[in-house]
Amino acid sequence: MKDRKKIFEAVFFITVTVLALSVLFRGQNWSDLLLLIRKSNPVCLLSAVFLGLLFVCLEGYMIWRLLRLSGNDATLPGCIRYSFIGYFYSGITPSATGGQPAQLYEMCKDDYPQMLAELEKEPFFDVLDVGCSTGAVIALLNDKYPGRHYVGLDLTPKMIEVARTKVAPGMEFVVGDAEGLPFGDASFDAVLCSNSFHHYPNQAAFLAGAFRVLRPGGRLILRDYTSNDLVVWLMNHFELPLARAFGHGDVRVLRQRDFVGAARAAGFEVVSMEAQKGFRTHLVARRPR
């Protein structure tokens, strides 16, 4: 099975690369392009390639060091792979339709089993996924539990455009703000939120909205980033400001006790709170019956 997956990934990578190159160089004279390359200073070309690769590898190294500092068992090759995935797909596609979903999937795919396992502990019918990206979680849920009602919400229209290509009976995708959920009171049995909470400027507003749209007894299942106090401080004071300077939407990472305090302030009963490997928070909170 793993071999088949590797073959599929290789074929997909080659196909996307060929398609991207064909679109980028459509109408171009290949002989002219090759002539320009031959006329270029080889030292400059090689230096540019080397520095580009070095930049991506150093980003992966920084991610790895932060993870190791927080006690997580991340591997250096895995962190470098994530960096290359993001830069490759962002380079060949518009960021919101290619680079971001590819990065998000690589970053979040290990969270999906835990979220689904948590959701399956109790009966559910109406489920809201906030910050749904391209709808991967909802697609998985609908495949496993068809005939129920799943709603995905994301602030980025391009993400929702991609998600709507997966739509099936019982699924819907909405462009909307996590801090002002456009749904009626007591509409859902569960609200899911995976790796988007740290993007919300007003995290309290999201938690209040999640509490409002949940039915009594309904659960919020939230996975995001956390670590020890030192690493969280470093992330909030150095990494996230730098990310914002380069156009990323990262706002604030919470400490474990802050997650618990914020959930309780919104009216939730905290069922469980775990700090897991990979910088992950796993919070389950219930609207009281």
List keywords for this structure.
289 residues, 11 helices, 7-stranded mixed beta sheet, alpha/beta, globular
Number of helices: 11
Described by strand count, sense and barrel closure, the largest sheet is: 7 strands, mixed
Strand order of the largest sheet: 3-2-1-4-5-7-6
Fraction in beta strands = 15-25%
Mean pLDDT: 81
Fraction of helical residues? 40-55%
Distance between the termini: 44 Å
The arrangement of helices and strands along the chain is HHHHHHEHEHEEHEHHEE
Backbone shape = globular
The helix-and-strand class reads alpha/beta
Low-confidence stretches: 92-103
Q: How many runs of DSSP E, i.e. beta strands?
A: 7
Q: Measured on Cα atoms, how large is the radius of gyration?
A: 21 Å
Structure, explained:
This protein is of the alpha/beta class and 289 residues long. It is built from 11 helices and 7 strands. A 7-stranded mixed beta sheet has the order 3-2-1-4-5-7-6, with helices on both faces. β1, α7 and β2 form a beta-alpha-beta unit. α3 crosses α4 and α4 packs antiparallel against α5. The longest helix is centred in the N-terminal third of the chain and has 28 residues. The termini are far apart.
Chart the SSEs and their pairings.
Blueprint: H1 2-24, H2 30-39, H3 42-69, H4 76-92, H5 99-108, H6 112-119, E1 126-130, H7 136-144, E2 149-154, H8 157-164, E3 171-175, E4 188-194, H9 203-213, E5 214-225, H10 229-245, H11 256-265, E6 269-276, E7 280-286
Parallel strand pairs: 1-2, 1-4, 2-3, 4-5
Antiparallel strand pairs: 5-7, 6-7
